[in-house]
Amino acid sequence: PWCARLVRAPAAGHRCVHVGTRRLRASKAATEVILNVPETRVSPLENGLQVASEDSGLSTCTVGLWIDAGSRYENEKNNGTAHFLEHMAFKGTKKRSQLDLELEIENMGAHLNAYTSREQTVYYAKAFSKDLPRAVEILADIIQNSTLGEAEIERERGVILREMQEVETNLQEVVFDYLHATAYQKTALGRTILGPTENIKSINRNDLVEYITTHYKGPRMVLAAAGGVCHDELLDLAKCHFGNLPSAPEGGLPPLPPCSFTGSEV
Q1: In what residue span(s) does the Peptidase M16 N-terminal domain sit (predicted)?
Q2: Annotated catalytic residue: which of 74, 86, 152, 156?
């Protein structure tokens, strides 16, 4: 029937707008879905670290640490350090050997992983909700107590160099690196995540420690979790395991160099 549709007569230069019953039903359904989304709760620690969670009441959860410390925060000399650190994350801590860490995660039925982007480095775990405290403690141990052993550094250096060779044969990866280099010419966003080969061959333990000391600060971190997560419990865990992380030093964190979009033909 005509009343099931609202029709607005078009003014000069405007197109006609129709709102049918099907669209109204879709809008209502979308509203209901939005209303069922768990509330996002965010709480800061005194050192600047943010704690965020969404509790959907599941029996599993995902918890991770998002750190503003990707390749954008590097310079030409240390480009590739953030990604190198990611490779070193699960190679042992002062508390756990690499084997101990792998067995603990396996016995929990959990999954531990990390990745590096131009903007961030992320360490995260997928686990049963009951194991949230252990997952958070493991993440804290990894980013604060990694041994960064010389033998492991040399081993991962070889792994990264082989990874770079594989990336060079991946047309999609190559194109996107060229796109960034073209779009953000002579700025940090134009650099690759893996860094140049000469940097990977020369990065040493002191470079890794310096990068952690400079960038792994409370104000640059977010501990986020979703699934079967109690926010108050997560906040208490954050205070326990991350409360002693340094905040911004006097004078503030190192300034992030501006990145302007240039663009041109590739």
Answers
A1: 51-196
A2: 86
The burial class, CB within 10 Å (0-12 / 13-18 / 19+), for 29 is exposed
**Would you call 173 a catalytic residue per the annotation?**
no
The neighbour count for residue 217, using CB atoms within 10 Å, is: 22
| Cβ neighbours, 10 Å, residue 106 | 11
Please identify, in words, the CATH class of the domain defined by 40-242: alpha beta
Nearest to 69 by CA among 205, 193, 241: 193
pLDDT digits (tens), the chain, 266 positions: 434 333 344 444 444 444 444 444 555 555 545 667 889 999 999 999 999 999 999 999 999 999 999 999 999 999 999 999 999 999 999 999 999 999 999 999 999 999 999 999 999 999 999 999 999 999 999 999 999 999 999 999 999 999 999 999 999 999 999 999 999 998 999 999 999 999 999 999 999 999 999 999 999 999 999 999 999 999 999 999 999 999 976 667 777 878 888 866 65
Tokens representing 263 are 């663009």
92 dihedral zone (left: phi>0; alpha: psi -120 to 50; beta): left
Q: What letter represents residue 138's amino acid?
A: I
Helix (H, G, I), strand (E, B) or coil at 212: helix
The token pair at 262 is 């240039």
Burial bucket for residue 258 (CB in 10 Å: 0-12, 13-18, 19+): exposed
DSSP 163-193: HHHHHHT-HHHHHHHHHHHHHTTTSGGGS-S
| Domain range summary for the chain, segments of one domain joined by + | 1-37, 40-242
